[in-house]
């Protein structure tokens, strides 16, 4: 049985022009359990790939070296005719599948809308080696739009809601886990403690005062969720630092809804070295230095 977890979030922030800003949080965690009978049968996929291999073998005497040769986003495999070896070359954006709709659009840090992330990465690849290419990143999902500037008062509210959200995501994963192994045994033990705490806030909309109060009162409950999210993102490579690319899965869907996202993560990189270290990450979520534990991330 294969399990896909789609953790979709909507942290909808409605910053009002009025002095009091109303911010609401809504969390939707969808767990899709796709049985092999319902989803794509892996055997079928393998057969399909095999068919392709046979076809290519008709054209090339040796096995296609591009089979099983992985190229990073924005690149495709081509065979170097001279020595019949695979090489990754920039994908032509026009070879990207046409976007199925506006929801596939992405906005780059150049504030240009790209039809899809494929178009974006292909374009970025063509700029490889240039200063422009180095600075270009996928900023957020959806077409570029006007984002309000994040003022100090709003910025200070961001970690309150984000912390609460992280805790709720973990608890929800725990509740749905049963035997799906969404969490490791070690992680489960830690979440169990949060789960069993009846004083925990129910997910949903809370006033910022309540969130701030809960953080003070139940501080220990927030330590693990903050570490856990860091570990989920720090994978390529898992070195205790988050790059822009590693942070993207969290940032990209959040920015169109939370206009403080960019400023929050920029300032989280306290020493401005473009990497968010675990210490920096924990600090911007209000976790005390003595509670930072590298072992909790693994
Ligand atoms: C980015 O593009 C959008 C839509 O074209 C525009 O409304 C917005 O003002 C631009 N933002 C910046 C910072 O230039
Ligand atoms: Ca990393
Ligand atoms: Ca840093």
UniProtKB/TrEMBL annotation:
Subcellular location: Secreted, Extracellular space, Extracellular matrix, Basement membrane
Entry's Gene Ontology cellular component terms: basement membrane; extracellular space
SMART domains found in the cross-reference section: FOLN (SM00274), KAZAL (SM00280)
Alphabetical list of SUPFAM superfamilies matching this protein: EF-hand (SSF47473), EGF/Laminin (SSF57196), Kazal-type serine protease inhibitors (SSF100895)
GO MF annotation terms: calcium ion binding; collagen binding; extracellular matrix binding
Gene3D superfamilies xrefs: 3.30.60.30, EF-hand
Disulphide-bridged cysteine pairs: 66-77, 71-88, 90-125, 96-118, 107-144, 150-260, 268-284
Domain Kazal-like residues, every copy: 89-146
Reported function: Appears to regulate cell growth through interactions with the extracellular matrix and cytokines. Binds calcium and copper, several types of collagen, albumin, thrombospondin, PDGF and cell membranes. There are two calcium binding sites; an acidic domain that binds 5 to 8 Ca(2+) with a low affinity and an EF-hand loop that binds a Ca(2+) ion with a high affinity.
PANTHER family reported in the protein's UniProt record: BM-40, SPARC OSTEONECTIN
Protein name as it appears in the record: SPARC
Gene behind the chain: SPARC
């Amino acid at each position: 049985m294969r399990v896909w977890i789609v953790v979709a979030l909507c942290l909808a922030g409605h910053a009002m022009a009025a002095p009091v800003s109303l911010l609401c949080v809504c969390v939707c965690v969808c767990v899709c359990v796709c049985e092999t009978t319902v989803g794509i049968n892996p055997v079928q996929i393998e057969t399909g790939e095999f068919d392709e291999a046979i076809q290519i073998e008709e054209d090339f005497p040796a096995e296609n070296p591009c089979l099983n040769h992985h190229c990073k986003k924005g690149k495709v495999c081509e065979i170097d005719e001279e020595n019949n070896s695979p090489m990754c070359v920039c994908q032509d954006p026009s070879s990207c599948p046409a976007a199925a709709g506006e929801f596939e659009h992405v906005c780059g840090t150049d504030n240009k809308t790209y039809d899809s992330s494929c178009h974006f990465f292909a374009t970025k690849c063509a700029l490889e080696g240039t200063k422009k290419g180095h600075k270009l990143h996928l900023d957020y999902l959806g077409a570029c739009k006007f984002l309000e500037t994040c003022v100090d008062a709003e910025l200070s509210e961001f970690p309150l809601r984000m912390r609460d959200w992280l805790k709720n995501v973990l608890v929800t994963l725990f509740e749905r886990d049963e035997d799906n192994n969404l969490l490791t045994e070690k992680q489960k033990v830690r979440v169990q403690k949060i789960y069993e705490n009846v004083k925990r806030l129910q997910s949903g909309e809370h006033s910022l005062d309540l969130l701030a109060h809960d953080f003070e009162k139940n501080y220990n409950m927030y330590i693990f969720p903050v570490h856990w999210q860091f570990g989920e993102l720090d994978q390529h490579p898992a070195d205790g630092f988050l790059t822009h690319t590693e942070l993207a899965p969290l940032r990209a869907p959040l920015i169109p809804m939370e206009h403080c996202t960019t400023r929050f993560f920029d300032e989280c990189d306290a020493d401005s070295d473009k990497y968010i270290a675990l210490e920096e990450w924990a600090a911007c979520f209000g976790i005390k230095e003595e509670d930072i534990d590298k072992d909790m991330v693994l």
